[in-house]
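anyone seen this seq b4? input:
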Amino acid sequence: MTTRPELIVTPAFVEDGVKRGTIRVIDCTVIFEIKKVGASTIHSGRDAWLKGHVPGAAYLHMVDDLSDPNGAYAFTLAPQPQIDRVLSAIGIRPDDTVVLYGSGTAVAVMRAWWVLKVSGVADVRIMDGGWQRWLDEGRAVATGEEQFTPSNFRGTRDPSAVADKDDIRRAIADGDALLVNALSAAQFTGTGGTHYGRPGRIPSSISIPAADLVNPMTGQFASPAEITQRLAHVDRDKQVITYCGGGIAAAATLFALHVAGHDRLSLYDNSLLEWSTEADLPMETGEG
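predicted toks r here
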């Protein structure tokens, strides 16, 4: 087992990397407007980035930049040519070490991590504690636009990392893959919180709430040792498919599993926004 604690970095690591020119930094701040039913409305954090950001940081919006504008569901993964254009515009190369951070709703940063990772950026990390920790530690703040020399990013999408409803059907039928629900315990049982068409979970799922691994508002992670301990019950020999409402919290749980050393990971991209709205697809409620 090879854990990956280096994927969670400190503001000091970021500050040093920026000064030495060894990393690229992207602010992924967005604000979620939670709904009782269905997808959240996600508001841009670009204005906040203009008012203050890590020096040299670009800004990417989880929806406008990293989601498919023509997708059937709100946060569907953007096509590879779109990701190539977005990353080329801010000068990202496939071999860059890229560090993401944000404020507002922190799980959006993990969603951005997943999008970049499956789209050909080899080394993507997350700054622990996000923008607030950077400020709390009294580090330098830049304002206004940043200028970037465009690159010619051409990534290769990893299709094995993106699950669809047919993969979920097979997982239910044959048990070869472990389905992990990243929503809250109340959403898992169907007793509370937002639902996405029908309350509850996909059959055969287990519950690993993203909020047990990373504070959803501050972006502060449990320590890598705690993450590994909390995920010790997950079978390392099985394919694991994470899901949630729209594939966002699922990315946070998947990131934690990756830090803990799991390799056979994929994310059900459209998650319950798709599954729970199709009447022929089964849902469960109650205790698992």
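Residues 107-118 form the longest helix (12 residues). The domain at 160-275 is CATH 3.40.250.10 (Oxidized Rhodanese; domain 1). kinda curious what u guys think
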